[in-house]
Fold Cupin domain-containing protein.
Amino acid sequence: MSSEKWNTLLNNTNRLTTPAMQKEILSAEECELFLDLIAKSTQQFAKEKKPYNGLKVFTKGVQDVSQNEPFIENPPQDNESLKEWSTRSFKGEPFGFIMNFLENYNNTIVEEMAKKVAPLIAELGYPFAGLSMLYFMGDYGYTPFGVHRGSAGEDGVLFHLGPATKTFYIWETDEYNRLTNHATSYKNVEEILHAATAYILEPGDAISFPDDMYHVANTEEFSVSLVLDYRRASQGKVKELIINELLQVNPDNDTLLNHIPPSELLQTLNFQNESEQAVKRLMSRLKSNGGFMKPSILSYSNLDLQGTYQLKKPFSLELLPLKKQQSTVFARGHEIIIENNKELLDFINLINTGAPINLATLNIGLQPETLGFDLFQFLMKVDETEILRKL
Ligand SMILES: [Fe+2]
């Protein structure tokens, strides 16, 4: 994927602060791939049997919570497309379907999206609250809840996957407020449509607009859109994330505190320095996972000691010194604590270059309490995060 189209989108949206669309950001094959990965994520969602966890189903133009449980019992089958499955489920009745947090259900969709948006992230940097994905699907005409605006901080990029086209209408905020007398949302869409800017999305096109702009989509025929949320988050939320990291900086510090006046407390606790470490941890966690906050789903390692492995870019192993002889390594959002063993550090440097590594060339040992065994255990833990590809 060329970074050219991303640069055009970034320029046209003034770095995601004004609306714009970009034609053909995904190829037909990429649309098919994402449709398939969405179906797999949806299957996994159903398996986990938490029907209210970020799922919204709309029938007859309103949200219908009674549909959540039947959906869990009747998810897409293997090799059944989203279209086939929804025709079977909704029996031709118009419907809308929104599922949040796709990264919770499938590692591959995160891999593919992280690869896709790497040029965008390289320009914009990681959002402090991480990236997240959701999808819309249906043939419901106008968005069931009418003209609306998103939750604060949810800027993002919508990738239209098709198969049908979708029209997006966006209003200038002042104009929308004048027409609707400051309504929080507006159901008589057609009454104010004349004042909106229309964007016609064909499969493979993307649109981006700021969270605070009123908009509505029209989807006459069945189609699917994948949304990547770039979560800036509130200051309070980011503070919470940093505090969680701060608790892991210099853990088990059992040095007794002297009798000191409160004015010296923060300095004595080394708060400024440790807060900076906490920010580094947060950024390393995100970087190791392509910008996503949710760590990958762990799998059993099938490490082949004769095999050749390569890092799945843009993910990386992010190393941070922890204490004395230990470091923290982030891999796809997971934290692995290692002893500072030269074999491990060399491996991390080499794999991060993207070079394929044949494990037979490493000094892996299978005897516990040897340096080679530390390397073996580390490789197993890294492999479990699914950050490695076996060639
Ligand atoms: Fe929306």
Observations:
- Residues 252-390 form a domain with the Malonyl-Coenzyme A Acyl Carrier Protein; domain 2 fold (CATH 3.40.366).
